[in-house]
Queue: 3 jobs
Job 1
Amino acid sequence: MSLDNILNHWSDYRKGSEEGGHHDYEHRWAMAINLDLCIGCNACSTACYAENNLAVVGKERFEKGQAMHWMRIERYWDQQELEHPEQGASFLPMMCQQCGAATCEPVCPVAATYHTPDGLNAQVYNRCIGSRYCSNNCPFRVRYFNFYSYYESAWPEPMEQQLNPDISVRDKGVMEKCTFCVQRIRTVKDKAFMEDRPVQDGEVVPACAQACPTSAIVFGDTMDEGSMVSKLWKKHQVERGVYQKTRHAKKNADLRGYRIFEDLNVDPSVMYLERVREDI
Amino acid sequence: MTMVTEKDINEQIAWAKINTDVLKSMENPRPAYWVTLAVCLAMVSTAVVAEYIQYTVGMGTANLNNPHMWDMYIAAFVFWIGMSHSGTLLSAILHLIHADWRKPIYRFAEAMTTFSLMTAGIFPMIHLGRVWNLYWVLPYVSDRGVWPNFRSPLVWDAFAITTYLTASMLFLFVGMIPDLAICRDNTTGWRKKLYTILSLGWVGSDQQWRNFRKIYLLMACFLIPLAVSVHSIVSADFAMSIMPGWHITTFPPYFVAGALYSGCAAIITLFILLRYFFRFEDYMTLPIMEKTAKLTFAIAMVWTYLNLIEFASVWYGHDIYNKELLIAKATGPYAWIFWTMIFCGSVLPFALAFKKLRRHMPTMFVVSLFLNLGMFFERWMIVAPTLSMSQEPHQWDIMYGSIVEWGIVFGSFGWFGMLFLIFVKIFPSVSMYEVKEMVFHRKRSAGEEDLARMTDHAKPVTQATGGEGA
């Protein structure tokens, strides 16, 4: 009976809506991206397309801004006034930051995006009605909307054979974004559960980290003290849920860690390590 | 006032003539009525074609893209919600403060409220990616215990708009009952059947009038906070976000002022149209037009003030994202829209300060249209530039709607016009019983001794003003 269901779970429901998110995380997946190592090769982005069944939308729609690249390499010119080779590009791999206090979550009218006990922002495709409010409220602009139905155009026969069977192909009208390769996390967690052991560091490797030729992307669980990513976060004095001072305020050039839009206080799960330049 | 004021309405006008004039309006409007209706229908069909393309191909046909997930649909949604507010202002607020000049024009203003809400209600559906799942926004009892997200302003929107639409429709209907009885008594055929059902057995007895007054007042009181809350909640769609240019504390009053403003301008437009279509020169008089224009002017100044406040708070707030966005609005690629908005919204209303212009119908018609153009641009300036220039510089972009988007927005005006024109043809667009009331009271206060003496004996004012027919 539905009414029973509501009455029985009323306190759970109230708790969930008042506090939001979780306080008893099982894992907190996080990344550390070393911009000094990033060469802007786009391998991560390509790997992401292959792993997550992302549609290739074509040149025209790409120019319209309707591309579906969950992982994108942002290119900034160091010296805008110079011509091309001397400009010196900086690259910033940008994907969903899996914020701890995500702004996309409270605005979804149907709760299609929510916070998992793993510290991820899950996007439930089946629940999404396509109001696109989450994307509007995302300061990183990393949510991608299926403006068209891509199944026919992006994977004409026999290319549908290359689709990853672990995750769905989204149809038009649904929002999607980087999941930190949740299907890989799921597989590893299931395996660890079957073998009755905790998940080991380095066991979960998202497609982008796997493809990166310079190993600029480190992925892991910050709940695990011994993990590589925990050590990096600690080394650069970046902590979750704490407003970080900028590098200059820290007065230590070795501390290169920062999180994007720290001033918005959204608690991103991705720490970037600033690029080292000779002249600065 | 020392100056001799012109009469709002000729109080010598006979009650029988009021009935005949209004009833006649429902039978034979000027040919311009049919032309306008045809234009509206053509506009609606444009929108239907555009929506068909968008529904089958996808939202991308509207040129929406990654930074611009919302665009003109949401601007039009806010615009139409806003337009509905002035009907409530005229019919409920001015009713409570006994401003009786509203009486000849409040009926169509209230109809405007209902139909612009119906137009606004279409936009959230048109713009949803998967509209067939729209009902998930409502908190229906599901066996799986899945609820909407009550923290989301879009859910509040769904509640606020449906409540306001229901309330304003009921208010429109209840206020019309005595008039429907007059229609019932004077028509034949399908109209008679329709009015018999809708007039709910109204005979104009004391008891009925007493109950009617009570419920009408009660509904007016109920509607006023609703009107304010609806647009405050619509503003929460923006103010609750963290985007620069959206996350602004003054948004609720700013939106409500803007809403009343565009609504008043629309009332002027429709006033002139109805006056012409239905030959209502005796009821929709120049002094009433002047009062409406003055009201519009006052609201325009409130809007201007709140606009300046918003700019000032952004400027002195020193939030880098907000400030840069404000500068970009005024100087960037959308500057022409920004300055058109400022001109139409804050400078043009000064035309309403001149008596000569207020009394010149063609000028007022054009001015009112431009005021609303300014208000449409204002809504667009709220929605789109924020998305063009949000925090993330890599995603900065400029975007203008495609022909599909324009077609749907254009068609929404036709949809509104169609509903409105059909309404005024089927239902009395001037409130007969209230115009009688107005004439009666004016006559009495003008010192018509005979009538005053007569009514002192035959006490019930209600009966005298009533819907006893011609």
Job 2
Amino acid sequence: MKYRRPRWLRRAGSWLADHRRAAIETLDRLIRAPLGTLMTVAAIAIALALPATLLTITKNLEHLAGDWRRGAALSLFLSPDMDEAAGERLAAALRTRIDIGRVQVISRKAGLAEFRQYSGLGGALDQLKENPMPVVLAVYPAADLVDGDDVDALVEGLSALPGVDFAQADARWVRRLKAILSLLRDGTLLLGGMLALGVVLVVGNTIRLEIENRRDEIQVMDLVGATGAFIRRPFLYAGAWYGLLGGMLAWATVATAIALLQAPVSHLAALYDTELTLVGLGPPESLTLLGLAAVLGVIGSRIAVGRHLRRLRPV
Amino acid sequence: MIEFEHVSKRYPERGDALRDVSFRLGGGEMAFLTGHSGAGKSTLLKLIGLLERPTRGSIRVGDDDLASLPRRRIPAHRRRIGMVFQDHRLLAERSVFDNVALPLVTAGMPRDEIAKRVRAALDQVGLLKFERALPLTLSSGEQQRVGIARAVVGRPEVILADEPTGNLDPELSREIFRLFERFYQVGVSLLIATHDLDLIQSLGHRTLVLKQGRLVADALPRPAEPAP
């Protein structure tokens, strides 16, 4: 005897098949109108690529700034009565602290040599009877201590240590850079929010036209007993496809922009004796971009469908 | 079963389309609805199909009171009714098969059952060989038969037809009415709005006559006078 699946299972299969058919038919419909589809998708892609590119640049700058912050040392100038051995003992004590990454002891001799090299006062220094340089400890804050305020607090604490004359760190540039990056990020998010609204409007308007074009079909489906969900389904899929295709094009635009910028950025970095590799959108960011794009498409479509179907189905 | 009790319908811009209409159409009964243009025939059918709500009175189809039927139950109500229109209302881009399948697809019926039922319905109206054709490649009479197949494919309790032969010549009109009679014979209720008095008289079913929105007659037609 032939096995027959239960009715509920066949209904569920039919429901899934309807979704699959709606998704495929909608994509097919978009492909059959390439120019109109391309224009809508391009408008969505531009709206998404702009904030995505800015966010990627911000991310690269934050990464770079993090490296700079971690690379910046605080200088602890020890009092004249502290010799190298006392400096080593203090350094060993500091190395046990969690807010300090590493400590380097710069001897009086090394300090004088460095001063001679960079000051251009070699001749004058030769006239001195004894080395006036103190022992200096170069203290590198822990990697997670990147906030300018935290660095200030660390400097204040280190200044108060016995044997320390004074501590020096220019945390102002860290704060300024942080403020600029924060402004850039907030501005990008604000711009992204406005452009996301633009995506919703673009998709909504496209779907509105689609509903007008398919008015007869909608009315016939309504007459034969289609539910609102059934009628809305292809339009929601259309919105999702527009968003997804726009997101994919935006992703490609960002990737192209990063690839094009890599050579000039590397050249600039080389002028500062450093290396810099731009990082594009990683898998989580890429998936977020695509998902967000599809969701914005569905939202735009849902708003248009809700408004215009009410007009076509007054009862 | 369809029951109208003191039903009125008023449009703000046009005034009264139906005034105090009461009648009852039993299960498995066939009736014609006639009257001049603007008499209210289409409005009456729209009220049964819940394309409009009555301004006053009560309409019952089976156990449902249409005046208070919630919106979410309207699709299920419409699936209990097969509707046939003068202009066929077929989807030009979809095949005959897909047009007829539409009520079953919207009801979420399994695909194998849809195929079986659609072919049976097309067979009933004699169009099985055209299942892959597009509607616009068919004659007007064939298109109307596709519309009828779509109306009956969901095995409705009631078929409503609004001037189904309005665009057809007399021979095709008789053919369409013969189809309706076949459904009547298997127990489906039919309410058919038509101007075609000759056909009404020749078929001899109950006839409701509307005049300016009022039901002015509800009777079996008189047999034709014998020729002197």
Job 3
Amino acid sequence: MNKRFLPIAALGVAAALGLTACSGGSGDNGDGGTNAEGQTLTVWIMEGTNPDSDAYFEEVADAFTEKTGAELDVEFVQWADAHDRFVTSIAGGTTPDVAETGTTWTAEFADAGALAPIDEYVAADDLGDDLVEGLVAAGTYDDELYGMPWYAGVRSLVYRSDIFEELGLAAPTTWDEIVAAGDKIKAAHPEMMPFAVPGDAEFGVYPWVWGAGGEVSTLEGDEWVSGMASRESQEGIGFYTGLATEHGFSSAGATTWKETDVLDNFAQGNVAMALMGSWTPAAIVEKNAELEGKFAATPIPGKDGGIAPSVLGGSHLSMFETAENKDLAWEFIKLMTTGDFAKQWGDETGYFPGQTSLLDEAIASDDPLVRPFAQQMVEGGGTPPVTPKFGAVQAKKTTNTAIQAILSGQKSVEQALTDAAAEMDEIMNG
Amino acid sequence: MSNTLQVPTAAPGASAPRAAGGAARKSLLTRSRPWLLLAPALAVLAVLLLWPLVRVLLFSLQDYGLREIVSGEPNWIGLANYGEIFTSPELYTVVLPNTVGFAVLAVAGTVALGTAVAVLMASLGGFWRTVVGSAIMIAWAMPAVTGTYVWIWIFDADRGIVNETLQALGLQDEPVNWFTNRYTFYGIVLLNVIHHGFPFVAITILAGLLGVPKEMLEAAEMDGAGPWRRFWRIIVPNLKQVFAVVIILSTIWDFKVFAQVYLMPGGAGSNREALNLGVWSYVESFGQNRYGFGSAIAVLLTLVLLGITVVYVRTMLKEEEL
């Protein structure tokens, strides 16, 4: 049975490979691009980023058909099971032509050989100089660009401006000012958490590492060397966790909070300060309309002032190797990531566009919930190590484990970070 | 299974002398007939069950990641995956103690509670039996994910009802995060899993209880046996097979428990003391795209569960005809 099954399966796979190879070739040789009558482009987009995505993609589909003659088939995928779906479709050779890929996944899929490089297209359309740097860095693997910058957000310090005003406080610009503000809030509003320190949210940790002059992990020659145990990193994380363990600004429950728990509690009015993403203000107001106009953002302070770098989070549009008509796929990517549709997407979602010229418009905004984030993104955008191996570090929750162990008192700051650095080195060089 | 096979193989033996001078072809046909009849079912089983099992076994001998999935090239590394599993210190200090300890307590708790509820239901009248039956069915029908979140809310550190009650009673000064300690963490998982698992046991055992001959129980009562004695001397021996099935199934389920741990605060890997076999294999293999390593763990888990099942079946049902 098995013996008979194998050759048939092999035949099938070979035939499928042969077919895609043929059609891929014909796509390159001409019938792609602007005249693709009768063809269909399949696209996967993550669900939930844009509250009104159906209407948005109807408009995009019309424009796309008008320009190329091809139909657009958009499928919405949940973030939670998107990674699994990509992996299964890569295994089965059923990937879409174009898909939204989270910035930390692009290098991983490129490393596996599932994505097509897009440098030539970007160069041909002269877009290279107008792309946001942090997103280009995250989409580049082995010196080739695999992810077209689409949109991004960044985490900054979000605080309750009504409480700050009531107590005569200004937005903190140094670490000492954070502690001073927290002490005042704690005294005046004991029912509130002055500063939430979640134990299961790694992107809230790295700004303190970078803000103190530390590094997460750097490539030295061929080897990744984690800087999590350095004196600077210990100082930064010691301060961050100290907000909970020494100053009592956080809560016992926050030891196991994720970012979504921070958002929920801020929306319920339990939290006065927290690191939150530029995409959260809309969600906060949606959950609790009473908070509208009662909170503001400010870039994350460095130790003695300045801006501590914060992780850019966002998405690329990536082209898969299985795309039959790559010129057509590029037409779609270009339509989405540049010009009017990119701007509209940014306006509707609260994220920043991946095009520098569009981002500049956002910086000029005087909205207190847009401008600080834009400033953080331009002046203090950081990228975690760009290697598929860092995905493994995230999956193993190396950083989260360290923070949770410190917050729950299982380990000292030094012990927890020494362990984390050793684990990071082991995974990233393995 | 063995019965169905024995009957046809006995038949050719009996008919052989009669056909001795006749065609050997006929006896070959007769002999292979049961296999021919079984062939479609076996073919389906082979495709659906055997082939995936073989694949998992083959993956477990490879360093199999995304790259291998895309290229289709095998990448043999022999028994290195198994070596890594057995030399991993976390396996012995955290993963196995958590998994085995939890499974033992959970199976004991589920079967004990389920049996108690079954005995209660057997002694109830029609109306109240329906009421209790519907109530426990709701616990059973609740999806594991939903149930887990309910328990998380109950034990939430800042606003959970348990902490608020303990503080109101003055038993506790500060809110306690029950999810950061290994034992309280698994205590909550235990509550969750027993609550979700006992209805199946109760219903199954109730079905068995209703089949116990009334005459035996009445006779025992006449002879002066109290309820406790009647339960252990008559009901339990009569329900041996039912208990065996229930214990085996519960053991398999409780060994593999995943969602109820993974969804708990800190249970997805950031609290290393709370790792069990399911979460550990997920974090170490699928989270990091190491499908070969994950397959090796799956193979070992299958072998362990097979072993447990064999031991149970042999000890519980030795005297019976199985």
